[in-house]
Specification:
62 residues; mainly beta; 5-stranded antiparallel sheet; 58% strand
Length: 62
Amino acid sequence: MRYRHYKGGIYELVCEAVLEADHTPVVVYRGQDGQVWVRPKTAFFETVEIDGAALPRFAPLG
């Protein structure tokens, strides 16, 4: 599934995983440039406040 970051980038969710060190659920995702990123699942799906408006950090496209 693809998501748009609130700053405008498009990312593909590759998979969900678990961080070995402390069992934190994480999301593995890839940018349009091919770079792969990992972020805690709670942070990936959280809302952020921009100019007084609550927006999803990553909004699903589709």
